[in-house]
Amino acid sequence: MATVGEENAISTAPPVASAPDKVEMESADVEKGSGELEGGAGTATLRETFMHATRQDFLLLFVGAVAALLNGVGDPLLIVLFSHTLSAMAFSSVDPTTFLQGGASNNVSESSESMRSINRLTLTLFGIGFGLQIVGTVQYLCYVKVSSRLSRKMRKAWYAALMRQDIGWYDDPGNNPAGLAAKMSSAMLTYEEGLGAKLAMGIQFFSGFAMSIIVALMYNFYITLLTLGLMPLIAVSLAWLVKLNSEQAQVKNRAYGAASAVAHESFTGLRTILSLGACGSFKKKYEASTEEARRVGVYTSLKLGIANGAMLASFNLLFMTIGLFSGWALQKQVNETGCDPAHGPGFPPTLNTLSIPCNKMFPVGDFSSGFGGIGIFIAMCCVAQAGQFLGSVSRAVDTFSQARKAVKEAVDVIGRKPAIDTKDEGGLRPTSMEGHVVFDKVSFSYPTRPGVKVCEKLCLELRPGTTLALAGASGSGKSTVVQLLQRFYDPREGRILLDGNDLRDLNVR
Predict the structure, then answer these.
(1) What is the total count of domains within the chain?
(2) Longest dimension (CA), the chain
(3) 178/67: higher pLDDT
(4) Last residue in a domain, options 390, 415, 440
(5) What is the band of 199 on the pLDDT scale with cuts at 50, 70, 90?
(6) 392 and 431 belong to one structural domain
(7) Where, by residue number, does the polypeptide cross the bilayer (predicted)?
(8) For residue 499, what is the domain's CATH number?
């Protein structure tokens, strides 16, 4: 062991990497960064996504979910009531034109009964609409309140976890402090959006989709089954679209986080960069950090266009199927009965003519009473609405999936316990210190470059009251020795003693 006296100087061993080694390591770092750009950090579980939720938050989520379910159920019911209102107006003894102009019927009693029926349906529509307004407000307030609270808690926990990490964690290029602020801001905005009103609307649209299918089956079984055969095509195109959107958002966040780090470094050291004429170098670094995102973004945008086209084509095919089936039924009736739909008494009675051939081909229900026409109209509207709801559900699921992906990195950092933990309450707490420092066969390499040993079997002893000067070429390990003494890092081998105590046994705080 080398004992260093007062005003003595020693030269540290220079086990630094040669130029080829450095180039090889830098190339590996670039490849690693590119892999991270495309690979992604995974998705947080539901437990991790709601890790900071309290009982009050879960209660608000439950109340908001119930309100969203009721809100979704109300839309198909409005279609049913609206259809019956039109039917009551059209099939009353009042001529539709006379009724709309405020005229009277020859049969006063039948006219009064029709008016009472229409008034009841209108009041029911108003009541349901007012109720849907209330439950819609409740679902919005509950989920926006919870999302803002969870976002604030997650942001604070993430920041506290960042302050807890050791220096070795920040040496990773993916954890560059200059890009963490932009990354945190973007991730928390996505997280709050995914858990807020859009999640509530996803529950609402799913409820509306299920209720629309049920109502359509109740009113016309055959039209519903015919159009449900196209649902797998819609579901596949929507699932593909959701997957592509998630991948694109992940690549964008990582790429622009790296670009933000380069921009931050450029602005903070602008004078130095200008004095050294390094503007071109930083420009190339910025372009390199966004080039991968541009390449992947162009390719992903092409696939997004195809997926969007497939989704819209499937919806158009759905509506076309409904129209063709109704037209075929109308043609069947004209051929068999010789009726002229152009002379129908009004819009709902014209729809009623479509039910007559269906009744002959599929003897289900009493179509002659007018219910068949209403049934076809309601089934058509509900199935079309179910298709729209399915598309809205996919967008809500996509937003929630992006929120889980965005918060995954925060969850990983929060759950990571660093080797040098500033929150650890254990360890020795000496009441006094003399300052006797000993490096006992210390070997060390940086976490990002484990194959390059900066210190190897280093032995030093610094007695209290003495001065030690470390001399050596740049990169020989002078600053590393000081950082080891400050316990920014722990040695790979050997130990560092302070007054006879291993630094790893002392309380960091």
Answers:
(1) 2
(2) 123
(3) 67
(4) 415
(5) very high
(6) no
(7) 58-82, 123-146, 195-215, 221-242, 304-330
(8) 3.40.50.300
Which residue, among 29, 47, 395, has the nearest Cα to 206 in the 3D structure? 395
400 and 283, same structural domain?
yes
* 106-162 tens-digit pLDDT: 455 556 776 777 788 778 888 888 888 999 999 999 999 999 999 999 999 999 999
Burial class (CB in 10 A: 0-12, 13-18, 19+), 18: exposed
Helix (H) / strand (E) containing 9:
strand 8-11
Better pLDDT: 251 or 20: 251
Residue 210 shares a structural domain with residue 96: yes
Residue 36 is assigned to a structural domain of this protein = no
**Please, which pLDDT band fits residue 448 given cuts at 50, 70 and 90?**
confident
Same domain as 380, residue 453:
no
Place of tokens 């006797």: 436
CB contact at 8 A, 372 and 355: yes
Clarify whether residues 399 and 465 are in a common domain.
no
Q: What is the dihedral of CA 141, 143, 147, 148, to 10 degrees?
A: 0
DSSP 434-503: ---EEEEEEEE--TT-TTS-SEEEEEEEE-TT--EEEE-STTSSHHHHHHHHTTSS--SEEEEEETTEEG
Asked if residue 463 and residue 329 are part of one domain, the reply reads no
What tokens were used for 304?
A: 């997004």
Helix (H, G, I), strand (E, B) or coil at 506: strand
Statement to judge: residues 223 and 299 lie in one domain: yes
Residue 361 and residue 332 in contact, taking contact as beta carbons nearer than 8 Å: yes
Give the separation between CA 65 and CA 328, rounded to whole angstroms. Answer: 42
The parent domain of residue 15 ranges over 3-29+424-505
Q: Are residues 457 and 331 in the same domain?
A: no
Q: 212, 389 in Cβ contact below 8 A?
A: yes
Amino acid identity of residue 336, one-letter, is: E
Q: What is the pTM of this model?
A: 0.65
H-run or E-run covering 4:
strand 3-4
Q: For 30-56, what is each residue's pLDDT tens digit? A: 334 333 333 345 788 889 899 999 999
Query: Rounded to 5 degrees, what are φ and ψ at 283?
Result: -65, -40
40 falls within a domain: no
Cβ-based burial of 393 (10 A; exposed 0-12, middle 13-18, buried ≥19): buried
Pair type for strands 501-502 and 493-498: antiparallel
